[in-house]
Amino acid sequence: MMLLRALDIGFFVFHSGLILFILFGWVWRPLRRANLAVIVLTGLSWTVLGFWYGFGYCPCTDWHWQVRAAMGDTDLPWSYVKFLLDGIFGADFDPTLVDWTTVFGLVGASVASVVTNWRDWTGGTKETKGTEASGD
């Protein structure tokens, strides 16, 4: 039982950290490429693996739920984000609202990551390049 509890805590820490990294990893320049790679892998998991397991499929959630089921916790939502929000706020959030908010979060993080990586790869924005060229 101690091993299961350790795995449960490990998944909680890793998965929650992964979500934060997906949402905000693009902010710090040294992490931007890794952030973009993780976002792409997450999108592929949600769609490609989702073709077989259901849209939004996440292996981390699947494995974590297997651990929790072995601990006797079988009343778990489909979404890990819903699980977190319900636990943090002591509420029962609407699963559809949580799913859409999660999708918008991933899309927003994707756009931010692509834009910041693009700026890194091309050396900045047009405004910055124009300013440098004019000597201002």
Please give a structural write-up.
- The protein has about 140 residues and is mainly alpha-helical.
- It has one domain.
- About 75% of the residues lie in helices and about 0% in strands.
- Helix 1 runs antiparallel to helix 3 and helix 2 runs antiparallel to helix 5.
- The longest helix has 28 residues.
- The radius of gyration is 19 Å and the shape is elongated.
- The relative contact order is 0.13.
- The model has no long low-confidence stretch (mean pLDDT about 90).
- Percent strand: under 5%
Q: Can you count the helices?
A: 6
Q: Overall mean pLDDT score?
A: 92
Radius of gyration over C-alpha positions, nearest whole angstrom: 19 Å
What number of domains? 1
How many β strands by DSSP?
0
Defining key terms:
136 residues; mainly alpha; 76% helix; single chain
Task: Draw up the topology in text.
Layout: H1 2-24, H2 32-53, H3 59-70, H4 80-89, H5 95-122, H6 126-134
Helix pairs in contact: 1-3, 2-5
Task: Provide a concise account of the structure shown.
This protein is mostly helical. The protein has one domain (2-126).
